[in-house]
Amino acid sequence: MRTAVVTLALSLIVTGCLNSIFTKYQDNQYVAPDRKFEQPVLQTLQMFIGEAAAFLFVLARKYNGNASSSSDDTQLPGSGKPQLPRAKSYLLAIPAFCDLLGTTLMNLGLMYSPVSIYQMTRGALIIFVALFSITFLKRTISRVEWFALLLVVTGITIVGLSGKSNAGAEGVTEAHPKVFLGILLILLAQVFTATQFVVEEHIVNRWTVEPLSLVGYEGTFGGLLTFLGMLVGWITFAHGTKGPFDLVNSWNDFISNETIIWSSFAIMCSIGLFNFIGITLTSVLSATARSTIDTCRTLLVWIISLWLGWESFVFLQLVGFCFLVFGTLLFNGAINIDKYLPSWLTADKSTVRIIDVVDEQIERQ
């Protein structure tokens, strides 16, 4: 059992890391002598295709007789809530739309920032999820959790400042205004991702939704919305602009480089495996363990990026990473430092985590 858990944990770290590395690798490919592959919307579409592939795992489990055969209006064992009816599955198009906006902004931000800063900046997600949970889900947050969020904000700020001196793939210092723009886009993306989490939580508080099915539905709806957006954009304003909504140009860029085609296939496979492994692992591990695993994923992305020569080591980035990791682990309850904190800071500490079900079961990319 222990060997299986360790294998799953390592597989989750590797597949999650590959998602970021392959996407940045695509960004570095040239589709013309003076132009790189800059197609954040097309990259969003391939992410949704990878998510929709979750239905393959659902069908495989049903074929093997391991999935529940309950009808739409029955309750899943131990859930206490009815299963989401197929007739209402369209509700999942709302978080899928938030996912579309968030992922596209993150892909755009990744084009302008080193992959390690991209991965670390995504840690700001818990800040917006916490604030939105307080506002819309009427959750409460303890002083220790506020303290943890302050550490995360500090870490994100330091990581952002480190972008000023981060070197690019050819050893040339990147134009830090572009790095800051990339960070701002990634932070804005976390707003939409947090909205997605809150909407998902609202849905799963009312109905039971199998995690893999949730990923599959959102991947399907998101893929359709993304393609429709590209089609409408191409017809109305993007035709001939060679921008991300120019459908013909996006397709030509995609097929112009065989490496881009293979990396797209690799991204879709890694996302599908990442979702399946993550949900399988959650059934035997706690959320705190998942938090630690995800921290290892960020560290691995940074190490690989340094090894590939995409960026140089910046000590300030290491300091920011430490603040970010410590704050995230403290917020998620993976570490306990109550005995080192003043009593007034821990007086209202709760055993209930503010982020409840959704993020424990599902990781998108």
From TrEMBL:
InterPro entries: EmrE-like, Nuc_sug_transpt, UCP036436. It is a multi-pass membrane protein. GO terms for molecular function: pyrimidine nucleotide-sugar transmembrane transporter activity. The keyword Transmembrane helix applies. It comes from the Eukaryota. GO terms for cellular component: Golgi membrane. The chain crosses the membrane at residues 43-60, 90-111, 117-137, 144-163, 179-199, 220-240, 260-287, 299-326. PROSITE patterns: PROKAR_LIPOPROTEIN. It is found in: Membrane. The keyword Transmembrane applies. Keywords: Membrane, Transmembrane, Transmembrane helix. Pfam families: Nuc_sug_transp. SUPFAM superfamilies: Multidrug resistance efflux transporter EmrE. This is Solute carrier family 35 member F6. It comes from Cyberlindnera fabianii (Yeast).
